[in-house]
Every structure is written in structure tokens, then in C-alpha cells.
Amino acid sequence: MAVMRGITCKLTETTLQRLRQEARAAGRIVAALVRERVEAPSEASGRSVFAVSSDLAGSVAGSRKAATNKRRRFGRA
Hints:
The protein has a domain at 11-51. 43% of the residues lie in helices and 0% in strands. The model has no long low-confidence stretch (mean pLDDT 79). It is extended and about 45 Å long. The termini are far apart. It is built from four helices and no strands. The protein is mostly helical.
């Protein structure tokens, strides 16, 4: 089984409500619906979002603590 890693995704309230309603109707969780759509081939290219962007995935060195202001986020003193 593949290791699952979490991400944060910003959605409009309308989109989130639509996903919640669809998940409820299907007896599934929102994360499963999102995962299914990210991994599904797109109509345009026949490749999934994951396949198209997998070369961009990686890790970044630095603090695990989230940047909370512009000064820290952009390394300004």
C-alpha cells in the first residue's frame, strides 16, 4: 500500500459544500473524492494531474514551522 502524505488545498466555500454533498450522497469522504479526481486522467491530455506534475514534487529544506508573516516568509530581516 502506498504511503499517503497530506497537503493543504484552498477551496471556495461553494466548491467545498459541493464536495461535501457529493461525498455524503456517495457514502465517501471528501479526501477520497479529491484523490480520485487528482489521479484521474484529464480529458485534454489523457494524463492525470499527478502524472503531469509529478516531476515538480519534492521536499524543501527549512523549518517545519509555518511562516506567519511576510518578513519571515520571504526571509526579510
